[in-house]
Specification:
The chain is mainly β. The protein has one helix at residues 2-10; strands spanning 12-13, 33-34, 45-51, 57-58, 61-66, 70-71, 76-78, 90-97, 104-123, 129-143, 152-155, 158-160, 166-176. It folds into 2 domains: 1-39, no CATH class; 42-176, Sandwich (Jelly Rolls). It is globular. Keywords: Signal.
């Protein structure tokens, strides 16, 4: 609620009416108007968190990287020519599920791949997705199973199936709200 109030205050605008030729030297201020910028219509998704090499932990999200060859504040690089392909080279985002119920999540990965004209990524055991090399945004939707013990952490694993050189930049995790 506090954020919504801030947004409304931040959008307060005051306009001035132009001075007409007949009112030379007189500035007439218009009645202050308030323009409220409404948030975009609900798409049915709520951001749970965004993970990247600088932000690997938050109360409801975590990130683990395996087989990283290069790492800095903007990306984690994977290179099967340096780290053998036999070593698991994956990005593992976690989300804290608040209860034992099934939830639907959308994971949006920002990746960059070098080399060949196409490459393939796979989330868990889902069918691999073929994409052009270069800057790519991949979206996966996943329904979690119910879990009898209540609140718990749930994880996914994303890797490059072709063993191409690739960089992970970020993963945004959204939960379906409607």
């Amino acid at each position: 609620m506090r954020r919504a109030s801030f947004l409304v205050l931040a959008t307060l605008t005051v306009g001035l009416l132009p001075v007409s030729a007949g009112a030379a030297g007189v500035n007439v201020a218009a009645t202050p108007t308030t323009t409220v910028v409404s948030p975009a219509k609900a798409t049915g998704w709520s951001l749970v968190g965004t993970l990247d090499p600088q932000h690997v932990y938050a109360p409801n999200t975590q990130l683990v990287l395996y087989g990283v060859q290069a790492f800095n504040s903007t990306y984690a690089g994977f290179d099967p020519k340096v780290i053998p392909a036999s070593v698991q080279q994956v990005v593992v985002p976690y989300v804290r599920i608040p209860d034992g119920e099934s939830h639907i999540y959308k994971l949006v990965f920002h990746l960059v791949t070098a080399g060949t004209t196409t490459t393939r990524y796979q989330l868990d055991a889902q069918t691999p997705v073929t994409v052009a090399t270069g800057d790519t945004t991949l979206e996966f939707t996943y329904t979690t199973p119910t879990y009898s013990k209540g609140a718990h952490w749930f994880t996914w694993s994303l890797g490059n199936v072709n063993n191409d050189i690739w960089h992970f930049h970020s993963c945004a995790i959204f939960e379906q709200t409607s």
